[in-house]
């Protein structure tokens, strides 16, 4: 039994290496790129679907494993349709005194579209003018409506929309997940038929690695599901005369007071550096200083005791 089990494990490892190389090649050839645009992201990518025969192969392999897979979760089906990760940034100038109103309307709009606010930031600039940013996530099919709503709240000074097509990666992950699940069922069947502890331990070690890979693939698929189901938009809001939040500090105007502040700060840094150096080197220079004082005292005493010869 041990010899047959070892032969089965060897054949399965060879088959796994071949199929794993093919899946990796498919993933590297079809990695999705990213694109940036000033307007809305286009949907011109070709639709990607899973290769035919994958479901049948996984099902046949599951039948060979016996009835041990009855309680396992169903294999994840191949999802049709493009998988696009879409993010955007908009710089919005609003009418004077309308900052709070637009800020609140943007939050309400995200909620009405089935989304949520993930981050906010506000601050008061020079002359008391407010500015802030709101980052919202909405379902991907509501993203265009959100952009239209933002355009109605004020004047868009800049806009940047990026999109990344991860359709091929998503299909590849699902294919690899089905392959790993089929291997898991196979090893579970071997584990139940193992006749001694040594065989069971060998199968269990292989099974643990497969289960770890299954969890990793599931996590990546869930991440892509979330990022492609919801799109993110960061809106920067400011009133006329106020610089955008990224330039909130404004230009630096040269002045004598500013130069004096820089000089004083530089002097403080130099003094601080010297104090740190003196403190750090104290174990070295204090014994050296004591030794120098003692040596000079002994030398002076020796000079007084020695009388010149005539």
Please characterize this protein's 3D structure.
The longest helix has 33 residues, at 197-229. This protein folds into two domains: 1-251, no CATH class; 256-304. Helix 1 (2-29) packs antiparallel against helix 5 (167-193), helix 2 packs parallel to helix 5 (167-193) and helix 5 packs antiparallel against helix 6. Helix content is 56%, strand content 17%. It has a six-stranded mixed beta sheet with strand order 1-5-2-6-4-3. Strand 3 (116-124) and strand 4 form a beta hairpin. 21% of the residues are buried. The protein is built from eight helices and six strands, in the order H-E-H-E-H-E-E-H-E-H-H-E-H-H. Residues 18-80 and 246-253 have low confidence and may be disordered. The N and C termini lie far apart (111 Å). The radius of gyration is 35 Å and the shape is flat. With 310 residues, the protein is α+β, with helices and mostly antiparallel strands.
SSE topology:
Elements: H1 2-29, E1 34-37, H2 54-64, E2 84-93, H3 99-112, E3 116-124, E4 130-139, H4 143-153, E5 155-165, H5 167-193, H6 197-229, E6 230-238, H7 256-280, H8 282-305
Parallel strand pairs: 2-6
Antiparallel strand pairs: 1-5, 2-5, 3-4, 4-6
Within the largest sheet, what's the order of strands?
1-5-2-6-4-3
| Rg, nearest Å | 35 Å
- Low-confidence blocks of residues: 18-80, 246-253
Label the structural class.
Answer: alpha+beta
